[in-house]
């Protein structure tokens, strides 16, 4: 009972009759104990909420996210390596295909050249044969022509001798013609 | 400014039947009660009832709301433990990362084990500051008793930790070995004074900033009763309110980073 009037008196030094502040309420020492007590309670509660529940949980979330990111980066590195490998394989296959194509082209060229050589040889042989035939024919014709010229010369000589009133001695005419033809 | 308010309250407040924060009197004159928002009142019972240390007051109410808000921000939002965070979870993670990085950057790797304590300080101050910006709210961090307790807790913890970790070598904090020998005693005196002023500046900086902003808003609010200057007054309230949002965060940040700096001194006292 003794404390109550004192407290009322102290409260009275901080507020006036209308309940408004006198000076700064911050400096009213009658209220310090109340504020300090409740602040201590509050801080302890906040500390336990944070240190027991919130902070470990958030730390776990962040660690999990970091782990996920690290894993994903590792997976991405893996995939990148695989892609590089695939590219190398592709390049290798391309080079192989080019080499193969070159070889096939060379083989085809060689084959074609061989065929061509055979054909050219055959054609050359045929040409040679035809040339020989032609030459032979020309020789025959020439010979034929010479014989014909001889005959014509003999006949003409005989006819000329007859027309000139002589008698044609066949052997003499032939000899003369032959002599002239040689000359 | 507090004195002005006091005199205004003393001259016109006495004959007023209602103790409203800012209301115009029967004669149309302006009435300023910018400090009434800082009054500690019992939650239950009559306005004039005595306030004992255990009495549930508006301080209790707003501290409790701060606890609930912190629970909502840090625990409820993270309940899904999503790898891809929701907005709320992002806020919680952002707050965690912000303070964790601050502790790590300022105090070094060995300061990280004090991170929960510093996180408690930061979350309490920032949430109490922001809750105090709600209209008709009570701002616990505008009270010197509250901030002084926080600052003294930091000061005592850091000092004790320094002596526990380093013994008397902790006093090397005051002995600037980089300075010329004749200067060292003088510097030691300055260092010791500055060391003991730390909790004072640490606490008054926060309480002063919060109190000043809230009081200025109330002063402008009282001017809004005069029709001619009401638009200016309302614009000023909006502007100061924006500033206070900024100050609320910055002061929480400043208090926390100074705590980290003091903690660094305890962990690494050598200059």
Describe, in short, the structure shown.
Chain A has a domain of 110 residues. In chain A, 86% of the residues lie in helices and 0% in strands. Chain A contains 3 helices and no strands.
Number of helices of chain B: 7
Distance between the termini of chain A: 184 Å
| Alpha-carbon distance between the two ends of chain B | 42 Å
Largest sheet of chain B: none
Kindly name the structural category of chain B.
mainly alpha
Uncertain stretches of 5 or more adjacent residues of chain A: 1-11
What overall geometry of chain A do the principal axes of the alpha carbons give?
A: rod-shaped
Low-confidence stretches of chain B: 1-27
Write down the domain tally of chain B. 1
Would you tell me the structural class of the helices and strands of chain A? mainly alpha
Shape of chain B: globular
Order of helices and strands of chain A: HHH
Main sheet characteristics of chain A: none
């Amino acid at each position: 009972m003794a404390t109550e009037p004192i407290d009322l008196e102290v409260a009275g030094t901080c507020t006036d009759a209308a309940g408004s502040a006198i000076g700064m309420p911050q400096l009213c020492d009658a209220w310090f104990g109340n504020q300090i007590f409740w602040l201590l309670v509050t801080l302890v509660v906040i500390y336990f909420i944070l240190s027991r529940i919130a902070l470990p949980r958030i730390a776990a979330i962040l660690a999990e996210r970091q782990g996920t990111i690290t894993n994903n980066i590792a997976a991405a590195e893996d995939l990148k390596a695989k892609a590089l490998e695939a590219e190398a394989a592709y390049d290798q296959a391309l080079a192989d295909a080019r080499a193969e194509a070159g070889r096939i082209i060379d083989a085809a060229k060689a084959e074609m050249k061989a065929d061509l050589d055979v054909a050219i040889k055959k054609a050359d042989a045929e040409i040679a044969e035809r040339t020989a035939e032609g030459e032979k024919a020309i020789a025959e014709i020439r010979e034929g022509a010479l014989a014909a010229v001889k005959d014509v010369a003999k006949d003409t000589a005989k006819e000329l001798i007859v027309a000139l009133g002589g008698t044609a001695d066949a052997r003499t005419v032939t000899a003369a013609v032959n002599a002239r033809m040689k000359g | 400014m507090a004195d002005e308010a006091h005199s205004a309250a003393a001259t016109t407040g006495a004959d007023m039947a209602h103790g409203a924060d800012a209301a115009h009197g029967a004669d149309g004159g302006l009435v300023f009660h910018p400090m009434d928002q800082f009054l500690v009142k019992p939650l239950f019972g009559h306005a004039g009832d005595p306030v004992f240390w255990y009495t549930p007051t508006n301080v209790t109410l707003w501290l409790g709301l701060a606890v609930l808000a912190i629970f909502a921000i840090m625990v409820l939002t993270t309940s899904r433990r999503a790898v891809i965070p929701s907005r709320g979870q992002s806020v919680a993670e952002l707050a965690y990362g912000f303070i964790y990085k601050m502790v790590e950057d300022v105090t070094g790797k060995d300061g990280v084990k004090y991170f929960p304590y510093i996180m408690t300080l930061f979350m309490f101050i920032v949430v109490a500051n922001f809750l105090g910006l709600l209209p008709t709210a009570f701002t616990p961090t505008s009270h010197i008793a509250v901030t002084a307790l926080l600052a003294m807790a930091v000061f005592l913890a850091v000092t004790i930790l320094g002596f526990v970790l380093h013994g008397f070598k902790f006093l090397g904090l005051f002995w600037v070995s980089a300075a010329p020998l004749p200067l060292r005693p003088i510097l030691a005196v300055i260092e010791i004074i500055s060391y003991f002023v730390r909790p004072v500046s640490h606490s008054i900086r926060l309480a002063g900033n919060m109190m000043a902003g809230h009081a200025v808003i109330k002063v402008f609010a009282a001017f809004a009763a005069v029709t001619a200057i009401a638009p200016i007054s309302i614009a000023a309230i909006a502007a100061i309110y924006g500033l206070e949002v900024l100050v609320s965060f910055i002061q929480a940040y400043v208090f926390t980073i100074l705590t980290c700096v003091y903690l660094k001194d305890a962990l690494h006292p050598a200059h």
